[in-house]
Design a protein that fits this description.
Layout: E1 4-13, E2 18-28, E3 34-45, H1 47-64, E4 69-74, H2 77-83, H3 95-105, E5 110-115, H4 122-137, H5 154-157, E6 164-170, H6 175-178, H7 192-206, E7 212-213, E8 216-217, E9 220-222, H8 226-239, E10 243-245, H9 262-268, H10 270-278, H11 290-308, E11 312-317, H12 319-330, H13 336-339, E12 347-352, E13 358-365
Parallel strand pairs: 1-4, 4-5, 6-11, 9-10, 9-11
Antiparallel strand pairs: 1-2, 2-3, 6-12, 7-8, 12-13
Helix pairs in contact: 1-3, 7-8, 9-10, 11-12
Length: 370
């Protein structure tokens, strides 16, 4: 185990935004020995996104090596100044990456950031270019033309590029939702009525344009819990697709409140629950904070966009993760969590553009349930 390491990171985009990749190298701070290298193609993105991705990969590699102190060297003035706390992170597309990098940095006893000229960052720059070359060598898919039934917001928002469209479906009814109990990680199935709701949502989606292109159903990604898997499977059966699972879409961990009603939880922890409802950084006893959920879902969103960028996806999840995605689309604060209602088996739609813009197209539609 090397306690003190040097992380050199870089990223690039051929077009800005354009095909992008990152590179990172971890060295022994005392000897200069290369301990780890990381590189990856990240799809269509900006230079700043690629550079942050390189930093995140380098910090993650340093953590895997068991380092306690890290010196980061980058030729990105923006990343160095933002991570040092001297510049504010104003752009919405940078905020989740900055938060993820800071979360990784918090694992070390000390992290120091230093700007260096590009010529002194040739190792990481070379890795980033190798990643971009590898991405460019992949045979691109033929463009698929899909009839659009609504006007794109691009013209009046200034958004550029092809958005990733997320159809957000909340799972159907469970016994816990009937009794209005905290239902987070508890793995409960749909009721018979919940199955009917799932079937209705599936029928609604099967009638929508753009979910089946050239005979292929859109990707359907669900939380790993039974209630979302059952809802997602109903949609997959209707579209002729298959269900994938992503752990980042799981509901909030309510800890000791799992299975309790609001009243029961208030009686158990009266003052604590009041604080929890007014501060999203506070976790339920033995559970997870809403801020933690937001970071987790943001990372899941970024991973899905990196994999399926520019396509339409069906995400079957829970109240809090769906609210988090809508909050990202609206660039809203945490109070949205308490002011937005989402019904069981409801449909919401948000689009995320590669330049950082977003458009919320639909919220809490349950017309298919009537």
């Amino acid at each position: 185990m090397t306690e003190h390491v040097l992380v050199e990171a870089d990223g690039g985009s051929r077009g800005n935004p354009g095909p992008a990749g990152y590179g990172a190298v971890v060295k022994d701070a005392a000897t200069g020995e290369v301990l780890a290298e990381r590189k990856a193609y990240v799809g269509i993105a900006t230079n700043n996104v690629a550079e942050y991705s390189g930093l995140i990969a380098g910090l993650a590699a340093a953590a895997e090596l068991g380092a306690s102190t890290v010196d980061v060297r980058m030729d990105s003035k923006l990343v160095v100044e933002q991570m040092s706390g001297r510049w504010k992170v104003k752009h919405p597309s940078m905020q989740p990456l900055n938060a993820e990098a800071k979360e990784l940095a918090a694992r070390f006893s000390r992290v120091r950031y230093e700007w260096i000229p590009r010529a002194e960052n040739s190792h990481a720059d070379g890795l980033a270019n190798e990643a971009m070359d590898a991405g460019a060598a992949k045979k691109p898919e033929a463009p698929k033309t899909v009839k659009q039934d609504r006007v794109s917001p691009v013209g009046w928002t200034g958004a550029t590029g092809t958005p990733t469209k997320l159809l957000l479906v909340r799972h159907g009814q469970t016994a816990m939702s009937v009794e209005k109990r905290y239902s987070g990680r508890g793995d409960v199935p749909l009721t018979e009525h919940g199955k009917q709701q799932a079937a209705a949502a599936a029928k609604r989606l099967s009638a929508m344009e753009g979910l089946i292109v050239d005979g292929e159903a859109a990707p359907i990604i669900a939380s790993p819990l039974i209630r979302t898997q059952q809802t997602a499977q109903a949609i997959a059966d209707a579209l002729g697709g298959r269900v994938e699972t992503h752990p980042g879409l799981i509901e909030t961990d309510f800890g000791d409140w799992e299975g309790l009603t609001f009243t029961e939880a208030m009686e158990r922890d009266p003052g604590f629950q009041t604080s929890w409802l007014s501060d999203t950084s506070i976790a339920a006893p033995g559970g997870e904070s809403f801020d933690g959920v937001h970071r987790r879902v943001r990372k899941a969103r970024d991973e899905l966009i990196a994999k399926y960028g520019g396509r339409t996806l069906v995400l079957v999840s829970h109240v809090t993760p769906i609210k988090a995605l809508l909050r990202m689309g609206l660039d809203a604060g945490p109070s949205l969590l308490f002011r937005l209602h989402l019904d069981l088996a409801s449909l919401s739609i948000v689009e995320f553009y590669p330049d950082g813009n977003a458009s919320v197209r639909l919220v809490n539609d349950i017309s298919h349930l009537s």
